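User: Sequence in, structure out. Go.
Assistant: Echoing your sequence, followed by the structure tokens.
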Amino acid sequence: MAFIDTFYQLERLAHLIQRKATGSPTELAAKLEVSPRTVHNLLEQLRNWGAEIAYCRERCSYYYVQPINLCFSVIQPAEDARKITGGRKNISSFLLDAEFLRWGGASLYC
């Protein structure tokens, strides 16, 4: 799976968890268009970054145990900004060279 796909899936998952709108693990996999195993891996990645995530059987949704403010962005050196030409295919190679991600105020080095 390409970095950019994982990045978008993590961003979408974080948003669904924040809204408490994930549904069951099977429903969540369908929403993200991934396998249930990939859902597990994405949840594990968020947990590794410090997010406390639990599942509510009554609401049938994952939720954050502690309020958390997530911000996904890719930081690229200014001199490389001129390489962006647009389109998903072109931006993918640009993002693969990104120096690091910022997540909730913490730097995550790739």
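User: And one key feature?
Assistant: Confidence is low (pLDDT under 50) at residues 88-110.
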